[in-house]
Design a protein that fits this description.
Strand content: 15-25%
Shape: globular
Largest sheet: 7 strands, mixed
Distance between the termini: 20 Å
Number of helices: 5
Number of strands: 7
Radius of gyration: 16 Å
Number of domains: 1
Order of helices and strands: EEHEHEHEHEEH
Helix content: 25-40%
Length: 203
Amino acid sequence: MYGLWKPRVLGAWRVPASGPVIMAVNHSNAIDGPMLMGTAPRPVHFLIKKEAFVGPLDPFLLGIGQLKVDRTTVDRTAITGALGVLKNGGVLGIFPEGTRGEGDFASLRAGLAYFAVRSGAPIVPVAVLGSTQRRGRLIRGLPPLRSKIDVVFGEAFEAGDDSAGGSPGTAGRGTRKALDDATVRIQERLTAHLENAKRLTGR
């Protein structure tokens, strides 16, 4: 990442030095995940769509601890693997919006809340800014080489209590409401961080 672009990393000291952490990242470009992996102060394990695990990328992604997920179903293997990362005190990276979009945290899926509430791990919001600029691109879909990309880490926060526990796919009414409430709280914090990051970087 540092060889191809010019990342400017802000607030990395806010990431807890040890213990389970969930990094919630906005997602507007294919480079967002790799950029975070290359600049975060701790190794990050992402849930990545299984379609990306093709050819030589398959052993490479698995070798660096990335998690394969089938987005067409409730992938219990991926869920167990992600919870295992947190149980072992690792860092789980999640795109809360589920897929690439505007990168504004406007529409969050329940996955982030589930992992945060189930594990009790704090969430660190991360804003990747500048990856969507189009002028000067040599490779379609990627930001111009040697362009500046800001990676801004926010304050860690708790999503809620563990009253929404339970097995994957067995949530009752109480669990669903707890996850819905946690999702609302998370979205407010992520949106506020993104706005602050834009002000801080002038993006």
